[in-house]
Amino acid sequence: MLNFDFYNPTHIIFGKDRLDEVGKNTPAGARVLVTYGRGSAKKSGLIDKVKTSLGNRQVFEFGGIEPNPRYETLMKAVEIVRAEKIDFLLAVGGGSVIDGTKFIALAALYEKDPRDLLKFGLATVPLDVAGKALPIGTVLTLPATGSEMNCGAVISHEHGKYPVLNVMTYPKFSILDPALTFTLPRIQVANGVVDAFVHTTEQYITYPADGRVQDRFAEGILRTLIEIGKTTVEEAENYDARANHEWAATLALNGLIGAGVPQDWATHMIGHELTAMFGIDHGQTLAAVLPAMLDIRRDKKRAKLLQYAERVWDIKSGSEDEKIDQAIAKTREFFESLGIKTRLSEYGVKADKIPAVIEQLKAHGMTKLSETGDLTPDISKKILEKAM
Questions:
Q1: Residue 65 in contact with residue 34, Cβ under 8 Å?
Q2: What percentage of the chain has pLDDT greater than the value 90?
Q3: Residues 166 and 25: beta-carbon distance below 8 Å
Q4: Using one digit for the tens of pLDDT, what is the confidence trace for 106-158?
Q5: Taking the CA atoms of the chain, what radius of gyration do you get in angstroms?
Q6: 365 with 354: CB under 8 angstroms?
Q7: Integer distance in angstroms from the first to the last C-alpha of the chain?
Q8: Are 13 and 176 in contact (CB under 8 A)?
Q9: Are 11 and 173 in contact (CB under 8 A)?
Q10: Own/partner pairs for 359-368, CB < 8 Å, 24+ apart?
């Protein structure tokens, strides 16, 4: 097992009828900015319920945070924070709203150009660069990204998507009430299942490091998502399925299964470029890239792919390559059973666009990807060709 530090201070408040606890966990006397997306939280009355829980605190609102939150939008919120002397942020929404709010929390207290915070890639923004942030709470409405219990965000700026990680942006608390997700469109639920699944494989299908506990946790998350995936998509108000979906998505990226084991993230980095260039949903890009990635990288990932085949999909017969083929096929079938297409051509992306995607990967420094740092643009090109 590799050396690791594990730190996660987020207080999770999980279950039915927990929304009233927003007020109990927000500092008394705080000047609060409630952030949300394009209006569903407002129209449904959720924002009003949150404000009621906040009681007599001074509350401001900022709506309109996009899927794949944009730097320019978030900087408008930063202006409000500074002008109104906001001292607590409350994100009501899914991963994009929470990610955007984390960036607001950092940028509002950053004394230089906030675009500096976009320059660190998958490395943590050092505390001597950004060592302070406004405190954040969250009310989760879309189980997918795990942002409610980690310190990471992905921010869109110009033609790229930029990871921003900083230890100061762990939420102080997160309300996870599965019932708040019942009105989600099916495609968003399906995307959320895929996102949680691929978050897990990025930390699991790498190379053996004798992280036995981490592996078993990861396999449990994957098997749970396989068991409840179709149900949580098709039965919007199946509380038990949605509760398991929500908790699996949180555990997939709260640092636990990635502690002490190698991590990949190449599928995500390639997927980010596809979203930025073609507007394909994040979960859909992952569903298209992951099967191709596993196929092209089967030799590098052979031992863990075989473990994945046996422990997650119960594949125990056949040659090594036959087991790997079956595991990849079952992965693709699982995504498709959720209603997610798994070929880039099905999203209107043609092979002649691949060179442009590769150029964007180069422009954003994504030239040495994977758990071993040897996934070059040429290999990314092969993966994209396989994903067509």
A1: no
A2: 96
A3: no
A4: 999 999 999 999 999 889 999 989 889 999 999 999 999 999 999 999 999 98
A5: 20
A6: no
A7: 36
A8: yes
A9: yes
A10: 360/159, 360/160, 360/273, 360/276, 360/277, 361/269, 361/270, 361/273, 363/160, 364/160, 364/162, 364/273, 365/121, 366/269, 366/270, 366/273
**Total Cβ atoms within 10 A of residue 198:** 27
- Cα–Cα distance for residue pair 135/325, rounded to 1 Å: 46
Q: Write out the two tokens for 292.
A: 């191709």
Give CA–CA dist 172/24, Å, rounded: 12
Strand ranges for 36-97 from DSSP E: 58-62, 88-93
d(CA 293, CA 274): 14
279: left (phi over 0), alpha (psi -120 to 50) or beta: left
Contact 59, 113 (CB under 8 A): no
Assign 351 to helix, strand or coil.
Answer: helix
Query: Nearest 5°: phi and psi at 348?
Result: 85, 10
Cα–Cα separations (whole angstroms), residue 350 to 32, 342, 388: 46, 14, 7
Answer yes or no: same fold for 11-177 and 184-386: no
**Cα–Cα distance, 8 to 6 (Å, whole number):** 7
Domain coordinates in residue numbering, the chain: 11-177, 184-386
Residue 40 has what pLDDT? 87
CB-hemisphere CA count at 13 Å for 142? Answer: 29
Token output for 13: 């408040």
CB 167 within 8 A of CB 124: yes
The span from the CA of 295 to the CA of 19, in Å, is: 44
Give phi and psi for 152, each to the nearest 5: -110, 155
pTM: 0.95
CA quadruple 178, 264, 262, 225: dihedral sign: positive
Q: Are 140 and 176 in contact (CB under 8 A)?
A: yes
Given CATH 1.20.1530.20, say whether it is the number of domain 11-177: no
Given 1.10.10.2840, 3.30.450.40, 1.20.1090.10, 3.30.565.10, which CATH number is that of 184-386?
1.20.1090.10
